[in-house]
């Protein structure tokens, strides 16, 4: 039982939160490329991404593992994202820092999604049963390259007309 739910129910909730964060992340990232600040989508993305990391810590584990490390890194990155957006309202260098950290948090969620797909989808698991084979590495490399390209483009283009008000 986790927070009064069965492990299966809690896992399902965690997955739903993660998928909502990823969908909202797609919308926010596309908005960045169009120099649009999308306050509602951004709030949803940030809240769900934070919840994804936080709920990940509730799964039972005997030791600190890669999921915990990713969760801690994500929460640190998201703290900077929140400060850049809500504390400094994207002024000066905080604009680029916001873009980089928001996309880094989005990337970490996507990285975990790809890892879970390879772990849970039979056709993908057959290609990389241990998660360390070339198909897995190539998939993760392609995701990383796509995010780096998106990040470069977004940093150059994201100059919203009106910063988010306090």
Describe the model:
This protein has helices at about 5-35, 40-55, 65-85, 95-120, 120-125, 135-155. About 75% of the residues lie in helices and about 0% in strands. With about 170 residues, it is mainly alpha-helical. Helix 1 runs antiparallel to helix 2 and helix 2 runs antiparallel to helix 3 (about 65-85). The protein has one domain. The termini are far apart.
How would you sum up the global shape?
globular
Q: Give the strand tally.
A: 0
Q: Report the β-strand fraction as a percent range.
A: under 5%
Show unreliable segments: none
SS class = mainly alpha
As for the number of domains, it is: 1
SSE run: HHHHHH
Distance between the termini: 40 Å
Average of the residue pLDDT scores: 92
Range of helix content:
over 70%
- Major sheet, described briefly? none
The oligomeric state of the chains shown is: single chain
- Tell me the Rg in angstroms: 17 Å
Tally of DSSP helical segments: 6
